[in-house]
Design a protein that fits this description.
By secondary structure, the chain is mainly beta. Helices cover about 0% and strands about 50% of the residues.
Amino acid sequence: MRYVLPALVLACALAHAEFGPNIRVDHENRATNGCFNAAIALGPAIYVAFQDDSMQGIVTVRSDIRFQKSTDGGASFLPQDVTVRRGQVFACYPDIIFDRLGDLYVVYTERAAGGLTGHLYCIRSSDQGASWSVPSRIDDNPAGVAIGWGRVAADAAGNLFCAWNDQRLSYLHIWSSVSTDQGATWGANVRVDDDTVSSDCYQTDVAVQPGTSHYFVAATNPYYVRPHYISSHSVVSRSTDGGQTFLPATVLDTFTGYCGQPHVVADRDYIITDFTGSGGGNQNLTQARTSSDGGETWSPPAAVTDLDTLYSSYYNGAKLALDGSGAVHTALMVCDLANYVYSIYHSLSVDHGLNWSERELVNEVSGVVISDPDVAADSSGTAYITWQDGRNSRNEIWFATNHLAGVSEHDQAGNHTGIRLPGIARGALLLPGKSPALLLDISGRRVGELAPGLNNLRRFAPGVYFVQQETLHKLVITR
């Protein structure tokens, strides 16, 4: 029997798929201050943590951790920034998560005068950011060492998993720790990397696979290209015992030049990573790999976005987030090599990182210093992106979001049943089954054919369409 999707509305979502107006997050207006390193998380509200530096000329006097939130989907943020940690002297590089128990956590680096050595700390809020706990130390170094870039994730039981790099062993290595009491105390530090090269490891990212004890750490590790010449690979390490031990790292990239700053996300069935490396000359490219067996094996590298030779990905971009349907979102930092202008773009994959949509521009203002995006995504497939932006001749934190098509099902009587169609996302449709489908306009005229798997819908004009395929049920998609 053949089924028809009545009234498949692709208007707007197909036409230009633009992000909404850019909204400023921070309210730091002093001429001597700048804001950096924003991290975003979602819960009942949108939460953003960032670093606020007090400047004298080009010398940073101190840095603090600030907090912001939006309760209206990002249309506005709190009228004043909330100080969650006043640096003694430098509180920097925050990461923020909202766990399933309803708590907010911020992990950050605290460095002493001179900014070279310090410790890693965690703070918690159980009231949506109105108040914060006393900081608890994560690293177990007796004295401060060069340390930084802690990243944190939570498992289904509420345990916290954090990884970072520090120099307790002459070079920077990757370390991790687990908290089983909501961040109040942290367990013995576990070395993650298996690096034997006399050089440094950088840029951690972490994920926990839901329903398992599998913890993942992505990082940049050194290797010898040839004797006395060191470069770096992007790698992912996994633990199958809740972060107590780690298996040897898997090298993700096949670049012949430097590759770094990988990221990792996981749902119950898939682990998705991305990484950025030298594609030749002065161009960098971002690629992704996927595992469907808990990290045992990985798909071949896939281009996250097709860049011609006039554009280059940047290492501080390519952050990842999963939405409720399993689609993977990334926030990319891309450079126009002709003019050396950086912009923030969004791309997504509806097949677990194997194929990616065309990139969408996020920032409205060009020709200014724009960098370091972070991304979150909600259950409806909407993406939320923050970045640091120099449009007002100082570093500020800005935000933008899109609004994907919602999906609902109607029975024969026209009653709304509220079911979301997996695989539909802005400009892309993952067609289920093994048979092709016809795309019909509102008059029933055939305008195209869709193949099983991922389809790019942007080639069709905005409008109302019917999809006809043997294996589909009656569904309606509305803006």
